[in-house]
Amino acid sequence: MNGYDERISVLREVMRQKHVDYYVIPTADDHASEYVGEYYKVRNHYAGFTGSAGTLVIGRQTAGLWTDGRYFIQAQEQLKGSSVRLFSMGQEGIPAVAEYIERHMPEGGTLAYDGRMVDRAWGAQMEKRLAKKHARIQWEEDLAGNLWKDRPILTSRPVYELPLSLCGKSRRDKLEELREKMTEEDQDQVLLSSLDDIAWLLNLRGDDVEHTPVFLAFLLIDRKQAGLYAFKEAFSDEVQTALERDGIYLKPYDQIYEDVKKLEEITLLLDSRRTNDALYRCIGKNVRVVSKDVSRFIPKAVKNTTEIDNLKRIHIQDGVAVTKFIYWLKSRVGKERITEASAADHLEELRKQIAGYKDLSFDTISAYGANAAMMHYSADPGNCAELKPEGMLLVDSGGQYEEGTTDITRTIVLGKISDGIKKHYTLTVKSMLNLASARFLYGCTGYTLDILARGPLWDIGVDYRCGTGHGVGYLLSVHEGPNAFRWKQNPEQEAAVLEAGMVTTDEPGVYVEGSHGIRIENELLCCKGEKNEYGQFMHFQILTYVPIDLDGVDIQWLAPEDIRRLNAYHQSVYETLAPFMTEDERKWLKNATRPL
């Protein structure tokens, strides 16, 4: 029995004492965040799986981990020697977590979870499913977390304000617009739990989640003022005074659970997918709760002109850093010892030289050879691959800057690769440029356009088990909704129309287990185009300026229009970046962006 199975065994004994049949440990915090602080990594503690998405279900005799296509290979590796079974979500014959629990729950049984870690939408679904078996739910206690010895403490690092020169709209104006929508829809109060929503609305940033500049808080807003439930020690007197001028008053973080009990005879708006189950269950019984997507009330996905101008500037500087990194890598591989981890460290050092740099936007994925088939591979500095002048290195990276958030992937050819890999590489480039070149009528969603990227790969019977792209925040989460490119519909979530000002990644790829992984990623800014009798046409502007490795391109797989697009992109890359390069770097860049 390995260490993780021993921990599960101890938890099972507590489950037996509490008469619990199944215990669920999701990847979450009190705020339904995608990325969580160390305190909340309970699932990692029990399963040893380090991916950013996954749910662990522990029964009296069995245990299973559910994760998505980004992590199938990684999960297989990390669960080796464990009693935990991998359930590969979305694959034929694999039940969803809720379906599995309903199917295996005994009559009159008990499901338990920490209600703070499960969103209300999922909790309500389980109530409905388990009612058929007269089963009950225990949500009040953190059984798994309470057993974790030496659990990290909750962080409360300093919170700071963004000036208008960075955010483009005052906190007061944002709150006024939100209250106008509250009035239009007859909402008395709004409860926000999402950390990035709160940070954006209040023009505040923090450092409570690694690589994501947010702070732990809830926000309860009425027609005149708001209560900000957070750790007071994180706020300077100056920030507190500024908040109070705008009618926002600090309250203890956990007090929200008591204050919502006192609400009476009001209409309360919240998003049940972003509000935890425990908090929802505390809301006063006479409150009319309206659950809906709050993106209309918190339009952070649509960047304003200040944010867009800043993003354009910082993407150029970020592109300079990544391009210098590629030059450095291709010049030195095989001549000195470079590993996956040391390559990532060098890229981070280049980013740190950029004015306004604050942090990485996520842990850099630096994956050599077959490791790149794991979409979110993490290199262990003490035991990772050494790079050789052969094969490819996939580097997915990004930075958090005062002027915005970046996310870019390049797969760099280090030496000889097979014709088959070149075919995959070339069609990935074609796919990325195909989507970036889209012209479409307003009203389209990411579902509408996803086929433009996936099509060239589907034509050869290849797919990637993830979305094509995700929204990107502004000095916020590198993964931000509601905009995204994907083909599978989510019946529980309405697809977002692509609006001018939205920033979305474009990152198709090919992943062949045991062989190679390829991903090419740019960020796209959605823009308005021509308006005529057919309606408002839209298009994308590429924000990312970094050369695509022509050593991986086989021209036989490109049509004349594909070649034109690649040449045009490379011309803009050279013209934009050349002024920031040394003479040697500029000569290399000229060749790296040569027309085909």
Largest sheet: 6 strands, mixed
Spatial strand sequence of the major β-sheet: 4-3-2-1-5-6
Assembly type: single chain
Helix content: 25-40%
Radius of gyration using CA atoms only:
25 Å
Strand residue percentage: 15-25%
Here the CATH topology of the largest domain equals: Creatine Amidinohydrolase
Q: How many E-type strands?
A: 28
Mean pLDDT comes to 96
Total of domains: 3
Q: What's the overall geometry?
A: globular
User: Any idea what the CATH superfamily of the largest domain is called?
Assistant: Creatinase/methionine aminopeptidase superfamily
**The top level CATH class name of the largest domain:** Alpha Beta
Q: Would you identify the CATH architecture of the largest domain?
A: Alpha-Beta Complex
N-to-C span: 57 Å
Q: Given the structure, what is the number of helices?
A: 18
What this model shows, in words?
- By secondary structure, this protein is an alpha+beta fold.
- It has three domains: 3-146, Creatinase/prolidase N-terminal domain (Creatine Amidinohydrolase, Chain A, domain 1), CATH 3.40.350; 160-296, Creatinase/prolidase N-terminal domain (Creatine Amidinohydrolase, Chain A, domain 1); 305-588, Creatine Amidinohydrolase (Alpha-Beta Complex).
- It is 33% helix and 21% strand.
- The strands form eight sheets. A six-stranded mixed sheet has the order 4-3-2-1-5-6, sandwiched between helices. Strands 12-11-10-8-13-14 form a six-stranded mixed sheet. It has a four-stranded antiparallel sheet with strand order 21-28-27-24.
- Helix 13 packs across helix 14 (340-352) and helix 15 (419-436) runs antiparallel to helix 16 (446-458).
- The longest helix has 28 residues, at 305-332.
- The protein is globular, with a radius of gyration of 25 Å.
- Belongs to the peptidase M24B family.
